[in-house]
């Protein structure tokens, strides 16, 4: 009897201790993120000077635009491909050697160093095509990097759904594809969007893969809307330096620029805020659509 | 086959046969799950399938709308006819499932609104007009005896309903496709007694318009709702007769042992 009571008390003590430890770990992660963000934002604000938010040589608006445009282009490629690949892996692939091999490929792709993918992009999209550095090449390279994340989250999201959804749909005389489009994808959309946000984050932050693909220069003429012109902002086949690459450049070769440190600090702040805004909007939007479709209030 | 007691088939001739099964065998790979099943399921009646777990009653039910097509390694031989048309050889599975709907053991509404759940079947079959969909949704929910409970919350999530309501919603969703036969796979096993009795009343009401085949673990339920009852054991159909006769004068020793609770 006494032994039993001792055992219970011991279990309770361990439970309390573990709860405290877990809270501590969670708290320190939060603190770390908060301190880091605060540091970057404060340093960025202190580095402000008039003209930094311009399209001049010392401004970063062009790079900001390039970043958003490049992420947009890369999502245009990686989202349809990744979601379709995820659907294939979850719904169509049979458990066999080929599928296992595919899965290994996807996993290794996700752990390849981005500079390797960047050089691959340079080789295939720049050298072999004889093109100049361009945003499209950068976007394709970033899509290769983000494809595994989208594929895996889509597959996992669909697999996590109750089998009964598909059964019910099929029993109502739907085809497999109809069931996927009308029932499974909407039900999995929240998790898939998380994967897309992660993939987009990759695009925002990527530097190494863009070094030799999207290029390190930006010369835009904001009054030129001829899509084939080298200086037209919307021409996807022009060179376009992104913010993260700009930060790296300002800290290395670009340090000849008297403002280089301020530009780097301020760019870092803008980048952090942009990623935050992007995740927030994506989540709010997906919640809105979701609650409207399912009738559930969040 | 010769030892199956099928006195039901004698008086069948006059009555309307909806589903005719002849010498049906079903295999999961090498394993034979159904042995030589033959039975006639009558139109506008409730037919119950009873038997211990693993006896093949649910497997048999799934052959009737070809839901086991979705599983790998299933092979079937024999004859299965809906209104004299062979459902495996002469009919498309999608066509069949429009005519033979199914309600599952666990209520399985989609994570959509109540309205969208019921409208799902008509929509995938090409009905787009709102007025027409409204009409179908209301009619189906009325048939499932749940319209009054739900009419004010059609655009709320179906997942917020109680288990019993969800199951009646699933029945409404099945009816919205306007099937001729409704298969029910232990539809009340996850529900409380009050919801169960509502589903049973509903089944009784529905047989005026539909042919119903219900798998149940609950012998009292079979006795309460079914016109005919089939007893399955180890993949064989042991006895298939009028429910009252089967329960009062079981002709096979195994049936008697089962319904008196000696095993299963």
How is this structure best described in words?
The complex is a heterodimer of chains A (298) and B (264). Chain A is mainly α and 298 residues long. Chain A folds into 2 domains: 1-46; 51-294, Orthogonal Bundle (MetI-like fold), CATH 1.10.3720.10. Helices cover 72% and strands 0% of the residues of chain A. Chain A has 9 helices and no strands. Chain A has helices at residues 2-46, 61-92, 97-111, 114-127, 135-159, 163-171, 176-205, 243-251, 260-294. The longest helix of chain A is centred in the N-terminal third of the chain and has 45 residues, at 2-46. Chain A is globular, with a radius of gyration of 24 Å. Chain A starts with a helix and ends with a helix. The mean pLDDT of chain A is 91. Chain B is of the alpha/beta class and 264 residues long. Chain B is 34% helix and 25% strand. Chain B is built from 10 helices and 10 strands. Chain B has helices at residues 57-63, 93-99, 114-124, 130-143, 147-150, 163-175, 193-206, 219-225, 243-248, 253-259, and strands spanning 17-28, 31-42, 46-50, 74-82, 85-86, 100-103, 181-185, 211-215, 228-233, 236-242. In chain B, the strands form 2 sheets. A 6-stranded mixed β-sheet of chain B has the order 6-7-8-3-9-10, sandwiched between helices. A 4-stranded antiparallel β-sheet of chain B has the order 2-1-4-5, with no helix packed on it. Chain A binds chain B through residues 162, 164-165, 167-175, 178, 182-183, 186-187, 293-296, and chain B through 65, 67, 70, 94-95, 97-98, 101-102, 104, 106, 108-114, 116, 120-121, 123-125, 155-160, 170, 173-174, 177. Chain A: Belongs to the binding-protein-dependent transport system permease family. CysTW subfamily.
């Amino acid at each position: 009897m006494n032994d039993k009571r001792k055992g219970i008390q011991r279990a309770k003590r361990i439970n309390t201790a573990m709860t405290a430890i877990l809270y501590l770990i969670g708290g320190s992660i939060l603190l770390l993120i908060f301190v880091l963000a605060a540091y970057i934002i404060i340093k960025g604000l202190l580095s402000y000077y008039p003209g930094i938010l311009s399209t001049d040589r010392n401004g970063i608006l062009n790079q900001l635009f390039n970043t958003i445009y490049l992420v947009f282009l890369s999502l245009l490629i990686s989202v349809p491909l990744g979601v379709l690949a995820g659907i294939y892996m979850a719904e169509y692939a049979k458990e066999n050697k080929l599928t296992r091999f595919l899965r290994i490929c996807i996993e290794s792709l996700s752990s390849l160093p981005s500079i390797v993918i960047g050089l691959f992009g340079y080789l295939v999209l720049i050298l072999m095509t004889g093109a100049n550095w361009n945003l499209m090449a950068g976007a394709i390279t970033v899509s290769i990097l983000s494809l595994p994340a989208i594929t895996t989250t889509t597959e996992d999201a669909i697999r996590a759904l109750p089998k009964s959804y598909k059964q019910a749909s099929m029993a109502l005389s739907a085809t497999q594809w109809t069931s996927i489009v009308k029932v499974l994808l909407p039900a999995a959309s929240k998790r898939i969007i998380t994967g897309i946000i992660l993939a987009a984050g990759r695009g925002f932050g990527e530097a190494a893969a863009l070094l030799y693909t999207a290029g390190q220069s930006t010369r835009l003429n904001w009054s030129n809307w001829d899509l084939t012109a080298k200086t037209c902002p919307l021409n996807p086949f022009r060179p376009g330096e992104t913010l993260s690459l700009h930060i790296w450049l300002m800290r290395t070769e670009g340090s000849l620029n008297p403002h280089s440190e301020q530009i780097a600090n301020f760019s870092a702040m803008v980048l952090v805020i942009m990623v935050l805004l992007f995740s927030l909007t994506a989540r709010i939007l997906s919640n809105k659509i979701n609650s409207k479709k399912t009738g559930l209030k969040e | 086959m010769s030892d199956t007691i099928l006195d039901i088939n004698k008086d069948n001739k006059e009555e309307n046969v909806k589903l005719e099964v002849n010498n049906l065998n079903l295999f999961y790979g090498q394993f034979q799950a159904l042995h030589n099943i033959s039975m006639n399921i009558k139109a506008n009646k409730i037919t119950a399938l009873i038997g211990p777990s693993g006896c093949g009653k649910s497997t048999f039910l799934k052959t009737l709308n070809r839901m086991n097509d979705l599983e790998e390694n299933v092979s079937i031989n024999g004859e299965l006819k809906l209104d004299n048309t062979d459902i495996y050889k002469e009919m498309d599975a999608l066509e069949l499932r429009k005519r033979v709907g199914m309600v599952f053991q666990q209520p399985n509404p989609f994570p959509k609104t109540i309205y969208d759940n019921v409208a799902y079947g008509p929509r995938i079959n090409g009905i787009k007009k709102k007025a027409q969909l409204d009409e179908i949704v209301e009619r189906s929910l009325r048939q499932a005896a749940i319209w009054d409970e739900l009419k004010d919350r059609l655009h709320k999530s179906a997942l917020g309903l109680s288990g019993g309501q969800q199951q009646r919603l699933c029945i409404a969703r099945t009816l919205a496709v306007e099937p001729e036969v409704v298969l029910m796979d232990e539809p009340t096993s996850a529900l409380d007694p009050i919801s169960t009795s509502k589903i049973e009343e509903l089944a009784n009401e529905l047989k005026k318009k539909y042919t119903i085949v219900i798998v149940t673990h609950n012998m009292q339920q079979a006795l309460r709702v079914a016109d005919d009852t089939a007893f399955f054991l180890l993949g064989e159909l042991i006895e298939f007769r009028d429910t009252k006769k089967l329960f009062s004068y079981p002709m096979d020793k195994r049936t008697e042992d089962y319904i008196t609770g000696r095993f299963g």
